[in-house]
Amino acid sequence: MRGMGLQALYRKPNTSRKHPQRPAFPYLLRSVTVERANQAWALDVTYIQMARGWVYLVAVLDWFSRRVLSHRVSITMEADFCVEALNEAVARNGTPEIVNTVQGSQFSSAAFVKAVADSGARQSMDGRGCWRDNVFVERLWRSIKYEEVYLKAYETVSAARTGIGQYLAFYDTRRPHQTHAGRTPDVVYLNALPRSEVAA
Fold first, then answer.
1. pTM score, two decimals?
2. In what order do the strands lie in the sheet with 122-125?
């Protein structure tokens, strides 16, 4: 079915539902050339199908290198796991210039907006229905689902967290990227940082 592009018809969770009373931030990456690490980060949430039910995955992706800087798996769609992932990425890697997200309610929540502001970054949001604005995260979702999730029917949330964590470690350190002429995201990210930051 996957090879032929066939899908079962069933209700899927909507991970990008906008909160009607919260304003969207303008998209700051239009016509911008991202040419260095930590210039722009992208975040999104996707659902991960398990043997029974699903969990939600958020990832913080460095736009330039495609390196996954942090991630969280959650059983709810509350904003907390998105805030935790962002805070971990900032603590480990410093502050980006721009944090770009979809218009989901998690990313327009007071807690997430405050976390971005506290980090010193500027917040940006995709245009409504404009999946191309966050295309690199969409490609990450495709990779993780076809190379990991669809091959395993996770029985527990713990198994999902372990499997996804192991895959993302592989994705960063060992999976070659055509965009980077076969180099891994880790190599591209670390080589793009100033020497003082790498040494730290």
1. 0.84
2. 68-74, 54-62, 40-49, 98-101, 122-125
